Amino acid sequence: MKCPHCQTEYHPNTETFDVGCDVHYCWILEKQICPACSQLVLQLVCLKKYMADFGPFSGEELRRSVAWPRSASRPNPPKEVPAEFCEDYIEASLILGDSPKASAAISRRCLQHLLREKAGVKPADLATEITEVLDSNQLPSFLAEAIDAIRIIGNFAAHPIKSKATGEILAVEPGEAEWTLDVLEGLFDFYFIQPLILQQKREALNVKLAEAGKPPLKQ
After folding, report:
1. Is 110 found in the same domain as 149?
2. 82-97 pLDDT tens trace
């Protein structure tokens, strides 16, 4: 696994502690020490509760979350991404393990804001805005397919409130919250990182052209 403190990959040596059971679930706490940075990592695991002749016992893992450190499940966006988008992305990533529904709501709102600011779509519901940016053919095919999948996974046709009320806490399909964050990462790279890289390369080439006594590249 990857250490949430130092991001180093390591093979976990896990100690498990029985926390207890309630009427529905059983809980265990997994303790690990990162060998690279020597910091503690705690994961709380929820298990399905079964009943047997000798009492309750736990079985199938239902979910787990990092109890310590409290940090986002993904790296922060690059510094080139404006704060207005970074803040929503980081918050959606931070709560992903605790509430995929809330994470997806924040991500959809961030996506809608990004499309309006960078793709220039007319304000409407999210499904309409996604259609507009796809019809404009301004995105590379892999990003176009990725953003269109948000509608497919989220089943906007059956649940139109998802596209009309971004920010609402609504049920999500498995993987929907993670995918929306993946799409935001790709759009951040397309709108903020790649243009900057090309601009830096253009400036470097113009320096060489100037040294050779030739005119600079046209903007």
Report:
1. yes
2. 999 999 999 999 888 7
What mean pLDDT is reported for the chain? 85
* Residues 127, 33 share a domain: no
| DSSP state at residue 218 | P
Same domain, 103 and 177: yes
Phi-psi region of 167 (alpha: psi -120 to 50; beta: other; left: phi over 0): left
Q: Does some domain include residue 158? A: yes
- Residue 59, class by beta-carbon neighbours within 10 Å (0-12 exposed, 13-18 middle, 19+ buried)? exposed
Chain centroid offset of residue 89 CA? 7
Query: Which residues have C-beta within 8 Å of that of residue 165, sequence separation ≥ 6?
Result: none
Q: Is the pLDDT of residue 145 over 60?
A: yes
Co-location of 163 and 198 in the same domain: yes
pLDDT band at 158 (very low <50, low <70, confident <90, very high): low
Q: What is the largest CA-CA distance in the chain?
A: 89
From CA 213, how far away is CA 208, in angstroms rounded? Answer: 9
DSSP state of 2: B
User: What is the pTM for the complete model shown?
Assistant: 0.66
* Number of neighbours of residue 106 by Cβ within 10 angstroms: 26
CB 139 within 8 A of CB 190: yes
Quote the tokens at residue 107. 């991500």
| Whether the predicted pLDDT of 131 surpasses 80 | yes
**Structural domain count of the chain:** 2
Q: Give dist(CA 64, CA 39) in Å, integer.
A: 19
The domain containing residue 115 runs over which residues?
A: 83-202
